[in-house]
Specification:
Blueprint lengths: L18 E3 L1 H7 L2 E6 L10 H13 L8 E5 L3 H12 L3 E7 L4 H10 L2 E5 L10 H11 L6 E3 L7 H17 L6 E4 L5 H13 L4 E7 L4 H7 L29 E5 L1 H15 L5 H17 L4 E6 L7 H4 L2 H6 L9
């Protein structure tokens, strides 16, 4: 019988996620496309990795101790990760999130024990933007055990988490046979940290950006202009500024992907491969297909399967919502 690894606590379960071959995507692109199963992290998303790294680094620097307070502005998943990791260190969590995010993520944060602050969805330049509001909130809280404003967008512990874990895991799992890596950008930590590690191992690894409409990253890396067009229903990805985590990143190929195409592949993977994923994973998988077509046949390309689709039941699995947005509807709804 195969020995099952014993984990001492919640935090030891973060990372070392499996890499799975995505058969439909591989067939469409003529390549071997693999998805890193980040939905299998204990908090349910790729954001568990930076959550753990941010808190560990803050503890080492004595910014916060047991009983302290974590404050963060988030689309949801980083907040969930911070709250759960924080719980293991006896910390409290104050989470700021735009009202537009899914009801499922709001409920999950409350289940985790976070004190949830919902704000209007406004641009970053507005002081009431969820990220900037969280910074103001952090400054207003008094706690003798410390207050940590996680600041995932500009906190380089985020990028470090992927440089020290996600990148090495991918390299090891494919025994160094990695031709391309691609994913979307929210904070930029996943793409920046993973790509930096892979490029150090082999400078010929092609790094791609998969960008939803409504984000300025595609135009920035393609044309050098921070300009967005259109919009997207995806949550937690898309960016309008160069965060600290994105500074000095090297992008070889950029692709802009529609919600229609992203959801089409999400629904195909449910029906054919048993994978129930969120919209951002759809953007990533479509990006991997497009990168594969650009690179040619029989390449090994890796992307990120960010989180489980049940967090978006009220949106991407809601027939009324999909009809209103003129998006594809799976036949079983």
């Amino acid at each position: 019988m195969k020995k099952v690894l014993l984990k001492k606590n919640f935090n030891e379960c973060i990372g070392n996620t499996p890499l799975i071959k995505l058969n439909r995507a591989s067939e469409l692109s003529g390549n071997n496309i693999y998805g890193k199963c980040e939905f299998l992290n204990p908090g349910g998303s790729v954001k568990d990795r930076p959550a753990l790294q941010i808190i560990k680094d803050a503890l080492n620097k004595k910014v916060i101790t047991k009983g302290g307070t974590i404050v963060e502005g988030t689309a949801g998943n980083t907040g969930i990760g911070l709250c759960l990791v924080g719980n293991t260190f006896g910390m409290k969590s104050e989470i700021v999130m735009p009202k537009t995010q899914s009801e499922e993520k709001k409920k999950m944060l409350q289940i985790c024990g976070a004190n949830l602050h919902l704000v209007e969805a406004v641009p970053y330049k507005n002081p009431k933007n969820y990220v900037r509001y969280s910074e103001t909130l952090a400054k207003s809280i008094k706690n003798d055990n410390g207050v940590l404003w996680a600041n995932q967008f500009d906190n380089l512990s985020n990028k470090k988490a992927h440089y020290t874990s996600t990148g090495p895991e991918i390299w090891s799992q494919l025994e160094g046979k990695v031709d391309g890596f691609i994913c979307s950008v929210g904070t930029g930590g996943t793409l920046a940290g993973t790509s930096e590690y892979l490029k150090e191992k082999n400078k010929n690894v092609t790094i791609g950006l998969a960008d939803p409409f409504g984000s300025a990253m595609y135009n920035y890396f393609k044309n050098g202009i921070l300009k967005s067009e259109g919009d997207s229903i995806t949550e937690g990805i898309g960016q309008g500024r160069i965060t600290k985590n994105l500074e000095n990143i090297k992008i070889d190929e950029s692709f802009q992907i529609s919600d229609f195409d992203a959801l089409h592949i999400v629904f195909k993977m449910i029906a054919e491969e048993g994978l129930i994923l969120g919209g951002s994973s759809g953007i990533n998988v479509m990006g991997a297909i497009m990168l594969g077509k650009k690179l040619g046949k029989n390449k090994n390309i890796v992307t990120i399967l960010c989180d489980y689709g049940t967090k978006y039941e009220s949106k991407i699995f809601n027939k009324k919502f999909l009809l209103e947005k003129q998006l594809p509807i799976p036949e079983w709804l």
